[in-house]
Structures are given as C-alpha cells and as structure tokens.
Amino acid sequence: MTPIAAPPRPAVSPRVTAKAWLFAFLGANVLLVTVFFVNGGLSDNPLISAGRLAGLYAAQAMAFQLLLVARLPWLDRRLGMDRLTAWHRWTGFTLLWTLLAHVVLIVFGYASVEARGPVGELVQLADTLEGLLRAIVAFVLILVVGAASARFARKRMAYETWHFVHLYTYAAVLLAFTHQVAVGQSFTSHPVARAYWWTLWLGAGAAVLAGRVGLPLWRNLRHQLRVVAVVPESPDTVSVYMTGRDLDRLPARAGQFFLWRFLTKDRWWQANPFSLSAAPDGRTLRLTAKAVGESSASLRSLRVGTRVFAEGPYGAFTTIHQQQPNALLVAGGVGITPIRALLEDIAGHVVVLYRVRAPQDAVLLPELRGLAKARGAIVHVLSGPSDQRGPHGPLLGTESLHALVPDVDDRDVFVCGPPGMTAAVLRSLRELRVPSARVHAERFSLAA
Q: How much is the pLDDT for 446?
C-alpha cells in the first residue's frame, strides 16, 4: 500500500486562525470595556477609579474563563483542551489579582474620602451598598477555588474532589454578576454598556451550557454507546470496544480522546480521559488503557452490554494540523494509543518511534507493525530505562533523533507520552531547529 496522499492544506494553520480570532475577541472586549468606563465618568479619587476599572476587567476575565472551558468544538479541535485549560488557569490567576486590586483600591479609596480606617470602611460599605455582601462571598469562593487550583494543592487532591470544589466558581460568577447589576457603573450609566454586559454574561453562560451539558447529552442520546468487547492486550493493559447508533455521524478523529463514564453501580460517577486507540470507522470506538490506578484497572471487569456515557471528542492532536507531506510520530508508554490511531489517518511517509522501558511493555506493537507494513511506514522500538543511551547518546536526544530520522526538520512531529519524555523530545526538536508550528504535543495527563 502506498502512503496516504496529503489533502490540500490551508494557507494559515487552524491553530493560528483560532488564536487570532480568540485574541482579537479578547482585545476588542477589553477596548470596549475601557471606552465604557471612560464614558461613564471618572471619580475624583484616583484609587476609586482604578478600583472600578479593575473590577470591570475582573468581570471580563470571569466571562472569558467560562468561554475557555465551555469545550466548544470549533476551539477545542484547533487549540486542544490542554492548551485551553492552561489559558483558563492563567486567566484564573489574572481574575484573582484583578479582584484583589478591585477590593483593596475601592476600600482604601473610599476610606481616604471618608477619613475612616480600611476595615471600618469595608464594614460600612457592606452595610450600605446593595449586593456588596454577595460580592464578598463571591470573592471568598474564588480565593478558595484559586487555592485548590495551586499546583501543591492540586497534586494532593483526587480529580473528583478538585472538580467539586471548582464548581463553586459558578456560584461565584452568579453572585458577582448580581453585584455588578446592582452597583456597577456600566449598568447604570448607559443602555449600550448595559446591553454589552448582558450579552457577554448570557453568551458565556450559554456557551458553557451548550458545550458542557447540551452537546454531550444530545450526542449520547443519539449514539447510545455500549461495550461490545473487553480484550486484554498485556498483563496490565486492556482494550474496550464500543458500538452504538449512527457512529458514522460522530465527529471523532484519530488522535482525539473522550471523557468516558461506564454506567455501572461502582463507577458511573467517574469520568476518565482515554484516547481512541484506533481511528473511528463509523461502526466501533476503541480505547486502550494501562492499569495505573483503581479506575483504569477496573476496566477489565466491564461486562459486555454496559452502557457508556462519553463526553467528546476532544483534542487538537489530529491530522488537521499536519503541514508537511511526511510525519514523525513519537510515543512513550501508553501514549501509543493516539499515535497508533494517527498512523491509520496521517498522510505521507511516516516514521514511528515507540519508547518503552522493556520490549514486553510495547502494547499494540503487532497492530502497529501491521499498519506500518501495509502503508510503507517505519517503526523503531526504543527500549530501556529512562537514562538508556544508544550509539548516538540518549535514545530521544538530538543526535539519536537525527540518526533515526535524518529529515526530521522537514516533517510534522506528533508527540504523546509521559511529561518527562515529552519534554525531552521537545527539547531535542528545538535543538534540531524543527519549527514549532510543525510540532504537535499532547499532554499525557489528558490524552491517555
């Protein structure tokens, strides 16, 4: 079989297009809010004016946060959930600091006008201004969520616990919005500004409801997924096959993942991200998972006929981002699952580098070699401990990559594996001067 022919590529990559639209949207909104603030009139006290502007930017950051995690398909397929989640995280810290600036500047500003201490002024404002107590509760909730999202705290929490705490953000959004409606100068100064804020908040809320609730419910009601086979691939790895109705209409691509819920008594409440380990064929979906925890280990006990609720597909780790005629696929461990699916779908001549600790850890290798033989691809299995060295140094170091794939700088490179391995490969690619636009990396924590 000859390599798959590359389809025509757009002049501008989908990722660049999505970034441009997203940042243009954000910039236009920041400009509008600044204009509304200036037209609304400035306070004689510069602290109060700065505090009001910080509050408006905080409200905007809160709405933008909702948009980033709404899981809108157009954005997700072009930017990826991992990138959107990272931006959501940084927007959250921006929100935290702008809210803190809003509170401090307003309190100290009014305290200087009233010749009162900041604590006394805060008590006075809470007693006299409508909606301020709600705003204080919203601020406390955001502080709690921000603390739970800090890296040292996040690593010590189960995903379900962290997610439950994070849901308080929606309560904070509602409380903050009622405060803005009650005393926000943009709501009281001009009908155009008032219409803008209503549109922004309602649009952000509608995006979340559509992407996080409406679309998953509609797709699951339509496709009715259920387990049809559970196949052990190795002593600690298992594949789960699913089928359903009208799967040819499910917009899933090789390289993407779903959040899977298997509707049994003991695990219906758990949602786990697993990549598709085979390209969707319109009849079945397959995931392959390694037993790295209680949840993934329990997949072996799934029964045929178990109903499945799947959110997705998610992820930008797909061939829509391929720019060059040929490709290099690099997988580490169970990161082979989206790489194996991509091998079915990606265009041109393909080289696959599969990094494992020991040869017996190379799951799906017979399938991988069968696909490679059928389409004229090359597969290299690189085994050994993390510090293993070959004839050209570290197995995924600069010299080794160049020796295995001399034309690596003329290929698109797709990388999926544990964080340490992924970081090492990305570092080697930078040293080899492979353009960043041709490097596509999936965060292992979301992908497999």
A: 40
